[in-house]
Amino acid sequence: TRYCTLMICLVSAPLVVGAFPILKLWVGREYASHAAVFLQVLVLGNLVRMLGYPYALVAVAIGKQKYATIGATVEAFVNITLSIVLVQRIGAGGVAIGTLIGAFFSIGLHAGVSMKMTRDSIAVSRRRFVAQGLLRPLTCLLPSILLLPFWRQYQMLPFPVGTLFAWAISTLCIAVLVGLSSAERRVFLDKIKSSRFGAARTHG
What sign does the dihedral 126-128-131-132 (CA atoms) show? Predict the structure, then answer.
């Protein structure tokens, strides 16, 4: 779960921060100026939803999928209901917001209900699941949150170049130093060193 959360955060953060420039390069400024916020909310919704994916995968693998579907069923109901209500009040953005809120219901029910019902088969502490599997890797999103007041939403560079560089480096450093244990960092560095050595020997 921790690895999955780390990867989701590292993929999602640039999509949220750079939603406008990405869409502008793809479909043009006019479309991007209207759709960037929808992309950001939908990416965040999928980030939250995917936090429970490793648990759901294990539940399906051991034949306990009926418990793992509790969160998905409630999420679908909340998503559809809120989307119908909000789209009439605030337009297309309401659908994206419904998706985001539904995702929170999904992960909340996974941790609060489904994991409790499968604890005889899946021996994992819910407190450890939340603290180590979710909150620990989610700390790599802190630089993105701290930069929100300085975010220039509808420009090709959401932050000045220096700030953007600092944001990327700090995000990666937190992911490695906090998201990974010391033993995992050693394995990671050993893999990098061995790949470099292999490449250098092949080149030689």
Answer: negative
Measure the CA–CA gap between 165 and 171, rounded to whole angstroms. 10
pTM of the model: 0.81
**pLDDT by residue for the chain (204 residues), tens digit each?**
888 899 999 999 999 998 999 999 888 888 888 888 889 999 999 999 888 888 888 888 888 888 878 888 898 999 999 989 988 888 878 888 998 999 999 888 888 888 888 888 888 888 888 888 889 999 999 999 998 888 888 888 888 888 899 999 999 999 989 988 888 888 877 777 777 665 555 555
Which tokens go with 169?
């480096």
- Give the CA angle between residues 77, 125, 109 to the nearest 5°: 5
41-72 as b/e, with b when 16 or more CB fall inside 10 Å?
A: bbbbbbbbbbbbbbbbebbeeeebeebbbbbb
Main-chain phi, psi angles of 133, to 5 degrees: -80, -30
**Is residue 114 within 8 Å of 103, Cβ to Cβ?**
no
Query: Tokens 């917001």 sit at which residue?
Result: 97
